[in-house]
Amino acid sequence: LAKDQGRNNFQFYTSNLTDQAFAHLSMQTQIRQAIDNNEFIPYFQPQIDSIQQKIIGLEVLARWQTKDGKIIAPIEFIQIAEKTGLIIPLDRQVMLKAIHHFLRWRKQGLIDGKLSLNLAVKQLEQDDFFEFVNTLLCEVDCNPEWLEFEITESDIMTKLDEMTRKMSQLRQLGIKIAIDDFGTGYSSLAYLKKLPVSKLKIDQSFIRDLPQDEDDAVITKTIISMADNLGLKVIAEGVETMEQQAFLQANGCEQIQGYLYSKPLNADDIEIFLRQFPDQAKPV
Ligand code: C2E
Ligand code: MG
Ligand code: MG
Ligand code: MG
Known about the structure:
- With about 280 residues, this protein is an alpha/beta fold.
- Helices cover about 50% and strands about 20% of the residues.
- It has an eight-stranded mixed barrel, surrounded by four helices.
- This is GGDEF domain-containing protein.
């Protein structure tokens, strides 16, 4: 503890904390302004069936596009946005824009897969969230079955009962749910069986060192067969190499997402990708 290290350290520690609190507050203000200025936009990353060479979905990943055109990644703002509740208007802004793009691409026949949206616990906890989604989908004439929500395993496990209830509501509407970052959140088989989910997303930390790392290989195979036994779909994220893809295919996981096919792209660039795939697809 800083206190144990004497007066000067304590002074240093407190002033450090103040700096941190100040930075936090200033970021909070900037995020709030950015929401008002409509600066949060969706990027899209394709999810691929690696056997059929077919695009089965697009994951929406938020980016902050500042007035001077800088693109800021979620690591810079998601945590503070979640802590302060700003994630609620932020995510809704991104979701609205993403769904509009998606419906346009569908109409043009560029995609027949799903749109996959990341959902924060705070969002699910809102009493009006279900109503918000339902109204939005009716307004823009979007079939709920075209959507999927991703919720991280650790988020689900920290509020198991409430999350299960909320997820069931969405399921009744026809929206599918995937567990994001699977393998990092300590859920047990017993729970998994009861959750109203239809897909597991294997966390990228298990994919990174495949196929060499033996522990990761065993964990990945276990998750794949667990999904299979429970009747769930499975997708691997963070797939960057042909070797990783080959390992996953050999072990029964055809669905993959990662830099091997594409980084997350803005709407214009993903549209080009959709037009070209799979003809011009160039797995490195
Ligand atoms: P996630 O949902 O697990 O998303 C996967 C992250 O891995 C994304 O980072 C993606 O850009 C990155 N990624 C994809 N393929 C590869 C690959 O082949 N190699 C490597 N090294 N990385 C890859 P990103 O976009 O920075 O997002 C980070 C996290 O922020 C997301 O993790 C998600 O939890 C959160 N997030 C992003 N957008 C939103 C959003 O709109 N709403 C909410 N609530 N959370 C979001
Ligand atoms: Mg995700
Ligand atoms: Mg993930
Ligand atoms: Mg993550």
